[in-house]
What does this fold into?
Amino acid sequence: MTDLSEHTIATLAPELAAGGFRASHSGPLLRSYYRGEEAAGRNGRRFPQALGALLRGHARRRAAAIAARRVAADGTTKLLIRLADARTVESVLMPGDRADRAAGCVSSQVGCAMGCDFCATARAGFERDLSSGEIVEQFLALRDEARAGGRRLQTIVFMGMGEPLLNLGNVCTAVERIVSNDMGGLGCRQVTVSTVGIVPGIRALAASGLGVHLAVSLHAPDDPTRARLLPAGRRFGVREILAAADLYQSSVGRPVSIQYCLLAGVNDSIGQADQLAALLEGRRMHVNLLHYNPTGPGIRGEAYAPSSDGATVAFLARLRLHGIVAHVRRPRGPDIDAACGQLRQRAWTSLDLPA
Ligand code: SF4
It folds into this structure.
């Protein structure tokens, strides 16, 4: 039988019927699967023995797929998840500000073709897209992880390995299941899709009608600096990306977030803060300034460093002086290689500990 994570209630029903089960078990079975009842051993008497065994088998496989787990001092937990073809992806659980909440970060591809120079994932290159079920499985693994720590998985961001808008069909299918009341049960406002600025993908996501939150990783206010950091920047200019973000914002009715990772001496000058503010003037977008977790030399051999506290504060103050809504996001789990691709990179070199 196809993995339950690849199914909706409608697609599972005929497969159950073909296997000699009642098609009407499809809804209860998937609901039980998404609630994690099998992991808690609570499904036993609700289904025929074979279906109960199927659910328990899924729970065991999901637990066994976690090839490595690292917990940072701040509670951030990074999972290295082994897929059926033995490839690996990373998912991260971040404790929320409230003690009973957590946020999850999932990957959308194995590796990434975008080649961002400051990113550990980029160095391994692109291997393949994740299926919708493989994305859903990460969501469920993070939900299990949150529950085990007494927290509720409150939000999901597509900010792990890969460019989600280059795997848009599977990402949208996964999001539909994650936000379905019958399955994942999150609201679409609790899901954020992040992109380096794939303009056709932004337009397609707007047209999908999913209504998720969009985050654009800009990282530079001008095309030359951006092209140096993100090769994707050579294809889509800053103004073109912001025009697509405008379209997204007006069609979905939700402010777009601008992600800006501050790199010492590269994109953190006061002049660049002025340029960024000028770009965003009149736009209802807010800026998240991100702390960089160093990942070693980039593809072009350049080693980047995080901006100093002083430069970060000055950049933030300058944006605010221009009336831009901006915040500094605190670093998550720097002691566990929390930048994307780092855990996977270390596992490849056998430096990591098994779960
Ligand atoms: S930062 Fe994101 S888009 Fe860029 S290479 Fe890394 S995973 Fe890909």
